[in-house]
């Protein structure tokens, strides 16, 4: 029979406070605890595995995304759970490719603006949004913030993005995805026509690539804990999470 752990014992073993353990249980990150007749929670090694997997994953993708991923992993069959983990790696890879595309366009700006985008074709707002992995409303917001200046074509004045604007959009997307604020991004965009501005944007994008490499390494380190978690699910079967309640305080 699996050894039972009280809340304080589980918290110490996982490196969390008692309240964080209770919060993560309410959020569905770990399975619901068994309750004794007097109402005390009772946990098992499976809860410790889940908490360790969450901690490792939170370092790689952040607490909010890790909570969502763990809650989903616990309720999916093994094949689906493995696919969730694969998608985490794929997501970082897609971010990296978007940054590299922005760097390629930036390098072209310094030489020939007309060749700044390999396709040398304009894009509609729908096409550009899909290429960047954002919503059309995001592009309209960037335009309102003077980050983008699309052309207007046709009787309905539809937005059209020429190659130089596509490059700018890629740079904006990469910087925003990395957490840069609108004023910081605007400062970069406003100086793209100057050598110093191109150098500044290039340095910022290089920083994004380094950050993504660090995230990839952390996610690889988290893989062992995630494998232990999903292999345990294959033995025990997926569990049904308790209903999440309003979260009070940061869990990370």
From TrEMBL:
<dbReference type="Pfam" id="PF13411">
    <property type="entry name" value="MerR_1"/>
</dbReference>
<dbReference type="InterPro" id="IPR047057">
    <property type="entry name" value="MerR_fam"/>
</dbReference>
<feature type="domain" description="HTH merR-type">
    <location>
        <begin position="122"/>
        <end position="152"/>
    </location>
</feature>
<keyword id="KW-0238">DNA-binding</keyword>
<dbReference type="InterPro" id="IPR009061">
    <property type="entry name" value="DNA-bd_dom_put_sf"/>
</dbReference>
<feature type="domain" description="HTH merR-type">
    <location>
        <begin position="4"/>
        <end position="52"/>
    </location>
</feature>
<protein>
    <submittedName>
        <fullName>MerR family transcriptional regulator</fullName>
    </submittedName>
</protein>
<dbReference type="InterPro" id="IPR000551">
    <property type="entry name" value="MerR-type_HTH_dom"/>
</dbReference>
